[in-house]
Automatic annotation (TrEMBL):
Record-linked CDD domains: BLMA_like
Pfam family, one: Glyoxalase
Cited InterPro entries: Bleomycin-R, Glyas_Bleomycin-R_OHBP_Dase, Glyas_Fos-R_dOase_dom, VOC_core
Name assigned to this protein: Bleomycin resistance protein
Native source organism of the sequence: Paractinoplanes pyxinae
Similarity-based family: Belongs to the bleomycin resistance protein family.
Superkingdom of the organism of origin: Bacteria
C-alpha cells in the first residue's frame, strides 16, 4: 500500500528557498545534520528540498502537481508574494481549475482543484 509521497526538489540556496516557501504559507524546517536539506509542509502536502551546488534551473529543475481545495483562493493568496512567474487560473478540459507557478529555482508548480459543475 502506498501511503504518501514527498517529491525532492533541487534548489540553489536552501535558506532562500525555505523562506520563499514560508511566505507561501508552508511550515518549513531545515535538516539538522551536515546535509543542506529541508522540509516544507502545508496541510497534507510535503515537499523536500535539497541544496545542490550544480543545480541549473535550465537543466535540473523539477515539476510538481499540487491538488488544492480552491485554486483561485491559493492564487489570490500567492499573488504579490510569489517570486518568479505566477500564471492566471484557468479551467482545463480535464475538469480542473488550475494555475502555474515557476519559482526562481525553475521548479514548475501546477496547482489545481476540481471544477464545480
Amino acid at each position: 500500500m502506498f501511503e504518501r509521497v514527498a517529491p525532492i526538489i533541487p534548489v540553489g540556496d536552501l535558506d532562500v528557498a525555505l523562506e520563499r516557501y514560508r511566505r507561501l504559507g508552508f511550515t518549513v524546517r531545515a535538516y539538522g545534520g551536515a546535509e543542506r536539506y529541508g522540509f516544507v509542509d502545508r496541510d497534507d502536502v510535503s515537499l523536500y528540498l535539497t541544496e545542490w551546488a550544480d543545480h541549473d534551473p535550465a537543466h535540473t529543475a523539477a515539476s510538481v502537481y499540487l491538488y488544492v481545495s480552491d485554486a483561485d483562493a491559493v492564487h489570490d493568496e500567492w499573488a504579490g508574494i510569489a517570486e518568479g512567474r505566477l500564471g492566471a487560473p484557468r479551467d482545463t478540459p480535464w475538469g480542473l481549475r488550475e494555475f502555474t507557478y515557476v519559482d526562481p529555482d525553475g521548479t514548475l508548480h501546477r496547482l489545481g482543484s476540481p471544477l464545480t459543475r
